Amino acid sequence: KNEVEQSPQNLTAQEGEFITINCSYSVGISALHWLQQHPGGGIVSLFMLSSGKKKHGRLIATINIQEKHSSLHITASHPRDSAVYICAVDRGTSGSRLTFGEGTQLTVNP
Amino acid sequence: DTAVSQTPKYLVTQMGNDKSIKCEQNLGHDTMYWYKQDSKKFLKIMFSYNNKELIINETVPNRFSPKSPDKAHLNLHINSLELGDSAVYFCASSQVWFGTGELFFGEGSRLTVL
Question: A58-84 pLDDT, tens per residue?
Answer without folding.
Answer: 999 999 999 999 999 999 999 999 999
